[in-house]
């Protein structure tokens, strides 16, 4: 049961950085993918995400600590690669997915 979820809001409303985007955006995405793979292997998240609107991504987490770990990673990664994150919030998952 995943008890928490995060909503990350990016300044750039295109949240899947692929061809045509800056090296910073591509590197941000590569680092995030690597981190998600490790968190899936640790059982902290199912790995998939949902788009909640332009520039908004939702991810499920096993607990508060896992959600906080992701939040901290995203904030540090956004600074490292100069990919602005407007906000990242942690919520209780009442759907119990």
Please provide a written account of the structure.
This protein has a single domain, classed as 2-Layer Sandwich (Alpha-Beta Plaits), CATH 3.30.70. 38% of the residues lie in helices and 27% in strands. The chain contains two helices and four strands. The chain has helices at residues 23-41, 64-81, and strands at 4-10, 49-53, 56-61, 85-92. Strands 2-3-1-4 form a four-stranded antiparallel sheet, with helices on one face. The longest helix is centred in the N-terminal third of the chain and has 19 residues, at 23-41. The mean pLDDT is 89.
Proportion of beta-strand residues = 25-35%
Helix content: 25-40%
Low-confidence stretches: none
Query: How large is the radius of gyration?
Result: 13 Å
How many strands, what sense, and barrel or not for the largest sheet? 4 strands, antiparallel
User: How much is the average pLDDT?
Assistant: 89
CATH-defined topology = Alpha-Beta Plaits
**Coarse morphology:** globular
Number of helices: 2
Query: Count of DSSP E strands?
Result: 4
Counted up, domains total 1
Distance between the termini: 6 Å
> What series of H and E elements makes up the topology?
EHEEHE
How would you classify the helix and strand content by structural class?
Answer: alpha+beta
The CATH architecture designation is: 2-Layer Sandwich
CATH class: Alpha Beta
Strand order of the largest sheet: 2-3-1-4
